[in-house]
């Protein structure tokens, strides 16, 4: 199939970018979206043009690098990662708009690549547990209720892709932060830092120029891992509980 | 748990004709602003402030709506009700004490609600400095998108409403009248009635999303309760909107005079 792509091109963080139109021909429906971009890039290189910069790594839906805004929807028409999106989701002659994630917390590095180190900093302030070093304890020595372990596992599937931020009308990273808070806060091992974790992580996300959550739900609808809105409620519950318990947000 | 590594290590950044010229860069994370540690600077706490102040206003509105329905039992009953609000608690407390307590609580709620709304609005603007060229809605509701502008119009409505029916300053019949006369004068006027109707519809939308959002902000929702919380939001929003529209529309259509 033949496609028209309108791609955001931006040389560097300081120069204003714009949409540039490209044509790709002979696209196989079995290609992934990233492979289709690879084809375009090879063509651009042959034409002595600058290839389009985009993030990718595993190409199997687990690393979360490949975020793209495709036709106005984070990761495109399927609720999956861009690398797992196949060209059979499009039809011959389609015009496809491709943009980077847009948020104050995700400044554009080049073209479609954004700097997501803000996520790393949110994780760094609270996304850990304190565990003694040495031999791993017997796993069954700390029982975890099945319900909690299931919910913690669901939250732990978040791959830090940032689609939630990209889709949110407020540019909020709440779903991501909530997934981290729920993941650790539901486990017995995560209890010592539970109160300070939620306070610090929320303070950090506010400082990173992400917006506040207004419970609109666009995030969950595009999350490739289907992290639910319930997770955000859990974060709110934890944070208010931490304040009631007198935990101090300061580090 | 997620790895704490620097992102964007695998990206093509560079201008070149061969892949050999494609560079791999590792961005050094730059700290963007130190986290603010004050309680009320947290976006989640601001949402809780919004939720609590919103719920206080809703409780008041339920009582207010029921009171308004007195208009159906005639001028005397309505004016009597209006007088009663001013004398609750007498003679234990001076006239209007309870009324002023209610007014102050409501004023505090409106101010807190507006402060939180405005500050989250500003934060959301910083969070999306460059707009998308193309952005589609996947599931958001109309109600959730109209909270901010709808809320602003509701604020203007509240101010006008007090000047109109409480103070009488902008009332067609003037301030030196009974509450019932002011009521009839306002809603015999088509533009005023229309403004009232639009504001109430916006209030209905505001509450449709607001009630669900408030429960979520206070951490009270979960997958099991999702349907009942949404149902509650629909019912309260519809009952309040319909209840508030009943009196003005009845006057406008001549059912009450
Ligand atoms: C003074 C004018 C008002 C403004 C400017 C305003 C604005 C807003 C905004 C922007 C939100 C969304 C908050 C967010 O999700 O970030 C909101 C939520 C809400 N509003 Fe209002 N509003 C106003 C009046 C009212 C009134 C009169 C009521 C109740 C009768 C009300 C009840 C609520 C509730 C319950 C919420 C949900 C709180 C939450 O999400 O936690 N608001 N308001
Ligand atoms: S919550 Fe979902 S959309 Fe957000 S970063 Fe995690 S996996 Fe991506
Ligand atoms: S490249 Fe790893 S998730 Fe898409």
What does this structure look like?
The complex is a heterodimer of chains A (251) and B (257). Chain A has helices at residues 33-46, 117-126, 146-156, 163-167, 174-185, 194-207, 218-222, 230-244; strands at 3-9, 18-24, 69-70, 73-74, 95-99, 108-110, 113-114. Chain A has 251 residues and is of the alpha+beta class. The mean pLDDT of chain A is 94. With 257 residues, chain B is mostly helical. In chain B, 61% of the residues lie in helices and 0% in strands. Chain B has eight helices and no strands. Chain B is globular and about 60 Å long. Mean pLDDT of chain B is 86; it is low at 1-23. The interface between A and B is large, with 92 and 72 residues. The structure holds protoporphyrin IX containing FE, iron/sulfur cluster (SF4) and FE2/S2 (inorganic) cluster.
* Overall morphology of chain A: elongated
- Domain tally of chain B: 1
Summed up, the domain count of chain A is 2
Helix content of chain A: 25-40%
Shape of chain B: globular
Separation of termini of chain B?
68 Å
Strand and helix layout:
The complex is a heterodimer of chains A (251) and B (257).
Chain A: E1 3-9, E2 18-24, H1 33-46, E3 69-70, E4 73-74, E5 95-99, E6 108-110, E7 113-114, H2 117-126, H3 146-156, H4 163-167, H5 174-185, H6 194-207, H7 218-222, H8 230-244
Parallel strand pairs in A: 1-5
Antiparallel strand pairs in A: 1-2, 3-4, 3-5, 6-7
Chain B: H1 43-68, H2 75-87, H3 97-126, H4 142-145, H5 147-167, H6 179-187, H7 190-217, H8 226-252
Helix pairs in contact in B: 1-3, 1-7, 1-8, 5-7, 6-8, 7-8
